[in-house]
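Q: Give me the 3D complex with magnesium ion.
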Amino acid sequence: MAAGVALTSMVVGNDVALDVGTAVTRLAVPDRGIVFAEPTIVAINTRTGAVVDVGFGAQRAVVESPEHAVAFRPLAKGATVDFDVAARLIRAIFERAGFARFGRLRVVMSVPALATPIERRALRQATLQAGAGEVSLIETPVAAAIGNGMPIHEPQASAVVTLGAGSSEVAIISLGGIVTSRSLRLGGADLDAAIATMLRQRYGVVVSLDVAASVKESMGSALALTNGQHVVVPARTVGQGRPVTVEVLASELNAALHDVMVATVRIVQECLGDAPPDLAQDVLLHGLTLSGGHAKLADFPALLARETGVAARVAPAADSVVVKGLERCLEDMSSLHALFRNAER
Ligand SMILES: Nc1ncnc2c1ncn2[C@@H]1O[C@H](COP(=O)(O)OP(=O)(O)OP(=O)(O)O)[C@@H](O)[C@H]1O
Ligand SMILES: [Mg+2]
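A: Here is the predicted complex, encoded as C-alpha cells.
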C-alpha cells in the first residue's frame, strides 16, 4: 500500500517550469528547484541526424568531434527560429531532467511579451511535440514579477525590467496583469556582436562571440565607469587567422555598447511615460527591478536611474528570476488562470 502511494505521487509529480531563452534554457521542478540551466544549444549527429547532446555537452561535442556533430541554436531574439530543432532540444532537456518516460507532463513556460501570436504558437507546439501533455504560457515580465515576489495581484504597481540575451522588456504590472509595456529585440547578445564588430574594424581581428561576452562581463560598463582600464583579448587576424592578442581600452569597449544602451533607456522612459499617474507614483516609490543575465552588466541600474529619475536595482539571482516565477505559478495554477489566458492570444 505504502509503495503504491509513493508510485502514484511520482507519476503525478510531472510539473515543469521551462524558460527557453535565446542564450540559456532553464528548467525547474517543484521541490527540486532548478535542475537544468545550460546554453540553448543542441548538437546533432551529421550522419544520422540524431541528437548527440544539449547545453554544455553539445558545446563539447562539436569541439571534440566537429566532423560528427554540428551545433544548432534554435532561438534568436527571443523567438523560435527552428521549430523542429527547438522541439528536439526541449525533448532532450526533459529527458536529462529525468522525464524520460514522462506521462502527462504539465509545462508552464515563459514567452516574451513582444512575441507575436505565431511565435507563441511555435513555442507551444515545439513543447507539445517534445512530449508535453499540457503547455501554459506566461509572459516573461509577469513571470519575473512573480519570481521577484512582487505583489502583482494588488492595486499597486510593480515595475520590472527583464534583460536577456536577445530581448529586453519593461512592464508595469498591477491587479494581475500588464498595464503597459515596451519591448526590444535587443539584448546581451547584441552587445557581444557590437564588441566583435568594433574589434574587427579597429584592430583587424576576429574574436568569437564567447570571447566578446567574457570581455563585456569583465570590463563593460553601462555608464562607461571603467574607462581608463584595459584588457588583453585573444583573437585571430582577419585573413590569415594568425593568433594574436590585442590590448583593448574600456573606453572603446563601452563606446561599442552605446547604441543598445540608448535603445534600452528609451523603452524604459516610454513605458514609464505611459503609466497612469497613480501607478507612476507607485513606481517612483518602489523603483524598477531588473532581472535576466544582461541586467548584470556593470552599472546598468545606475544608468536607468540616472536617465529616468526612478531608483533601480538588480534582483538577487537575476538570471533565474523568471524560471523561479514559473515554478511558483505551478504551485498556484488555479488562481493565476487569468494570466495564462492573457498570454495565449
Ligand atoms: N556579468 C555579466 N555582465 C554582463 N552581461 C552578462 C553577465 N552575465 C551574463 N550576461 C549576459 O546575459 C545574457 C544571458 O541572459 P539570460 O540568460 O537572461 O538570457 P536569455 O533568457 O537566454 O535570453 P532572452 O530572454 O532574451 O531570450 C547573455 O547575453 C550574457 O552575455
Ligand atoms: Mg530570458
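A quick observation: The CA atoms of residues 24 and 40 lie 5 Å apart.
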